[in-house]
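yo

u said u wanted the structure for the complex thing, so here. seqs first:
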Amino acid sequence: MKKVAIVGGGASKCGRREASWRDLVQEAGKAMFENVGNISPKDVDSLIVGAAQPERFVFQAHVTPMVAECLGITPRKVAARTELMCASGQAAIRYAWACVGSGMADIAVVFGVEKMYMPDMTEAQTNMTCVLDREWDGVNGLSAPPFFAMTAQRHMLEFGTTKEQMALVSAKNHHYSTMNPAAHFQKEVTVEDVLKSIVISPPLNLFDCSSITDGAAGVILVPAEDAKKYTDTPMYIVGTGQASVGNVINNLANITEWVPLKMAVQETLRTANITRDEIDIAELHDCFTISEIMEYEAFGWCEKGSGGKFIENGEPHIGGKVAVNPRGGLLGCGHPLGATGILQALDIFQQFRGEVPQGRHVKGAEVAVAHNLSGAANVHSIIAYSRDLK
Amino acid sequence: MKKVAIVGGGASKCGRREASWRDLVQEAGKAMFENVGNISPKDVDSLIVGAAQPERFVFQAHVTPMVAECLGITPRKVAARTELMCASGQAAIRYAWACVGSGMADIAVVFGVEKMYMPDMTEAQTNMTCVLDREWDGVNGLSAPPFFAMTAQRHMLEFGTTKEQMALVSAKNHHYSTMNPAAHFQKEVTVEDVLKSIVISPPLNLFDCSSITDGAAGVILVPAEDAKKYTDTPMYIVGTGQASVGNVINNLANITEWVPLKMAVQETLRTANITRDEIDIAELHDCFTISEIMEYEAFGWCEKGSGGKFIENGEPHIGGKVAVNPRGGLLGCGHPLGATGILQALDIFQQFRGEVPQGRHVKGAEVAVAHNLSGAANVHSIIAYSRDLK
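structre next:
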């Protein structure tokens, strides 16, 4: 398999946008092609779209050729959409990587987009109730917030994790997102703000939860050997891991130990030939504050159960053990499902190039990972990126 | 890129099934694993699901881990769903091929499923109105039947194609499907039956149109070098082509000349290193009778505009120039969107192994192609299969 690089990308502003699905695509597409000046839409031979639920949110299916037409691309090698719910964007990058790596494609655009805001937000919430197994879980009222709330309750019971520790995750990520103009949220959130915000599903309050957000983003993949034709500072894809165990919540062996994430971490370190201590930046899937705490543990940066202490000690801040979510995370940036994985990749690309504001820049970073989970945290996916080709 | 083979597969009965989405998956999965006796679900490291619209038809998103759980698979390399509407199944095969070919996966299941029948069929039809561009075409009442009806009208005007010629396509494919126990339809349909059936969108009558159908199917992909471990008679994937041009119907240069199909044909012949005359079996996307007529032309088996004459002369029958849709096609077998591409591959696999009834067996077939289109025929995708590795 050939080595693959990302040579450019762009994104729309994320938030509650008064913009159509098509508007978001065009805004991000324009930014992407402007970022890499010497690739035109006509040069692109493949397009992989990450999108989770356009059929429900905007009543539009068959979105791949729609994105192609909006961007002026006529895919002559590979064109398809990937869906892996909250991990749809990362799944799209992995697909494009397989295409370029295997030689099926030469210049591939990976594009993620989700338009989620609806005037009647109960309808948006209803759309999200079919993410878990409808026949066994959704029917019993289980959607993402109550599932992650149960996870948090159990983690608090087993390991003594506190609401204050969870709130620290939100405060950190909102702090970084104040320095990210593309982020949905631009305001500092204190621990007290999190604890005083309305209850969504106990023990999770409003600021423990990522948001319904509109957004789009794209990146361009080429064989690593060609990367320097397009930019002096490409980013290389150097490893990956993905694992999936179970689906119906009753069948999960243990909700406070994400076995597939541990498997994905091991496989990522193995394929990237790195240790966990070499990771400078980790864009982790903080759909809820408890998720990020469990991810510290699964990556092995702290002992099982001590994720709360890890954030209390400032370890996941810039300058700590590992910079977690210097982009602002899903909590600060919002979570436009299909776009999120692409937005993470794009921010890491900009980190390596020194194109992010100083207050959230991880100086000298060489290796980064991006992580997404989906469903009842039963599917986990990671990509490792590197500034240099090892 | 490594060569890749299909070593087994299975399908559910297709039709208006009193069965849930999950039931269909389990029925096809059981048949698949029984077909290849020495691969168990635990051996499978990757799963690609082809599904077009589960969010609307059965209000279920994030279907990949649901299929994995139903089949007893715990994907530890790659798991994702592909959507390319009517070509979703073939897109899934292409994705799995890239994964196995690039070394990202070793044993991959490709699984297609669609549950489409609804007690209120107007709701099913409504779901299909978001396939074309909703903002520019759907809003004006354009869905698949009127689009292909316009295509047929124009083809009749430009080339003198007749309703009787189109009806011959339906009669041929329904004839073959009488010998396919998995097919939705098991009855002979005469030219007269087609011409007398109710008008759907002029000039297309009921029997000119493929149907809303429930069904599921799966195949297993491994590196070609390992194939003989699992079966003496694998089938090899030897080439492919895909192209996509435009989306909104106003932007299509010409509705009676499918430029992306001609591009995909050329690329398939080039990558498979075959000529069109070496193709023994062609499973073509006969969503409507006019489609198959235009596909004869695009494959170059006859002159542009003479597709009607081609069927009139019996050329696409077994024993003619090329056996087109000896499975029974979408017209005879039904069109469970995400499953269709997999069902085509499975039938070719069974053709090569001599496991289909004599009346529709293409004896001595060595090379086959499967073709799918999607949307306003603006996306076309082809895979070439071979009995032997060249």
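The two ends of chain A are 15 Å apart (CA to CA). The mean pLDDT of chain A is 97.
cya
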